[in-house]
Specification:
- The protein is α+β, with helices and mostly antiparallel strands and 383 residues long.
- The chain folds into 3 domains: 66 residues; 131 residues, Immunoglobulin-like, CATH 2.60.40; 97 residues, Ribosomal Protein S8, Chain: A, domain 1, CATH 3.30.1370.110.
- Helices cover 18% and strands 29% of the residues.
- The protein contains 7 helices and 18 strands.
- The strands form 4 sheets. It has a 5-stranded antiparallel sheet with strand order 4-3-2-1-5, with no helix packed on it. A 5-stranded antiparallel sheet has the order 10-7-6-13-14, with no helix packed on it.
- Helix 5 crosses helix 6.
- It is rod-shaped, with a radius of gyration of 45 Å.
Length: 383
């Protein structure tokens, strides 16, 4: 490419000279005192700027060394290549400690109050419990009774056998959570696993329970009182029984016209009105062993009002419940009864054990299933 100061000749006509200036693609050539505009592509460089003509011999058409020296000043300095950043070392991940029962999904949504003794002023922390050997990628959504669409509350991943805090709620926020929806998929990292079905469950929360002390109790996954709503139990989606009162009322209301027709048909064909079953209720046989009996000794399950009751009165009521169930089933040899007393400080548990050892010495005592009841129950076998 020609530049200012180069000696050039015209490609398509006779003549040439020195380039005095260049504008866009037009070079202005001093040809014997006259400045002639010529297209750059129609010029041939015969002596680059900075070269001296060789008068002793043939004139060089192109001097590479002089050309390079003339161009070096105009060449931009190349920037040094940016250093290549080394990848950050991968964070260490502790291996997952799997449990024998963790191959089945067990997911629970729990609400933990900040002050269980003053529920009307308490905040509630929503906690997702993952009691399985799987990573759970999930979305939790909510909506109020008036809303038609769902609002996402939390999207994320909870690791195997972990608890994850999702949100903090006040009483004024609870109506927004009248209905919840939970969707998830389960997987394991870096190892083969049994494919689990995707989970999609929605349910209505009973918001009145957030105001009832007896609804909060220590559970399998918490030593402190919580309100639990199972989502998946042993791989099966937990779907609470929802009763539609209007449908029940409609089903129980038999139109008068249908009643009259039924009476006429009964008279015409002498329809038998039915006979009572001859099978006796198993519970009426005092010696027959029944399925496992569960007795919840939490005071809220034994009475609806605690007005005027001292702690000793509550304890006596709980012990009376133990006596009654033991006496009612004393003839059922081999009968198993679980008394749910909770963990707490151990006052009720110790009182129950003392009563059973003193008044029912032949009974066999042991801790109930930890998986089902945690540390808060005693299994009694009648002998």
């Amino acid at each position: 490419m020609a530049r200012i100061g180069d000696t050039v000749r015209f490609l398509n006509s006779v003549g040439g000279g020195v380039i005095t200036r260049i504008e866009d693609k037009i070079a202005y050539v001093d040809d014997g005192g006259f400045e002639t505009p010529v297209l750059l592509k129609e010029l041939v460089v015969v002596l680059p700027a900075g070269h001296e003509p060789d008068n002793k011999g043939a004139k060089k058409m192109f001097d590479q060394k002089a050309y390079d020296n003339g161009r070096r000043e105009a060449e931009p300095v190349k920037a040094a290549p940016a250093p290549v950043a080394e990848p950050a070392p991968k964070a260490y991940e502790a291996p997952v400690e799997e449990t024998s029962h963790g191959e089945k999904l067990n997911l629970v949504l729990a609400f933990e109050p900040s002050d269980v003794k003053h529920l009307d002023k308490s905040e509630f922390t929503a906690v997702l419990v993952n009691d399985s050997n799987y990573f759970i990628s999930f979305s939790l959504m909510r909506r109020s009774e008036q809303e038609r669409g769902w609002t996402a509350v939390y999207n994320g991943i909870v690791e195997p056998n972990e608890l994850l805090n999702l949100a903090a709620l006040r009483h004024e926020n609870l109506p927004d959570y009248e209905k919840i929806a939970f969707q998830c998929i389960a997987y394991k990292k870096d190892k083969p696993f049994t494919l689990q079905s995707p989970v999609s469950v929605s349910r209505k929360l009973d918001l009145t329970k957030f105001h009832k002390f007896h609804c909060f109790r220590p559970g399998l996954y918490s030593d402190t009182p919580v309100l639990e709503f199972p989502l998946v139990a042993d791989g099966v989606v937990a779907r609470p029984l929802e009763i539609n009162s209007s449908e029940i009322k409609e089903a129980m209301t038999w139109p008068k016209q249908e009643k009259d027709i039924t009476k006429e048909l009964s008279k015409k064909f002498r329809v038998d009105s039915g006979r009572k079953s001859g099978h006796a209720d198993p519970a009426s046989n005092p010696r027959k062993v029944l399925p496992l009996i569960e007795v919840d000794l939490h005071i809220g399950e034994l009475t609806d009002s605690l007005v005027g009751m001292e702690p000793k009165d509550m304890l006596e009521m709980q012990l009376d419940a133990v006596r009654k169930h033991m006496k009612d089933n004393s003839a059922r040899i081999g009968q198993k009864i679980v008394f749910i007393h909770g963990k707490g400080e151990g006052v009720l548990r110790n009182a129950v054990l003392q009563l059973l050892k003193k008044e029912f010495p032949k009974a066999e005592l042991q801790d109930a299933s930890f998986r089902e009841y945690g540390f808060g129950a005693t299994l009694v076998t009648i002998h």
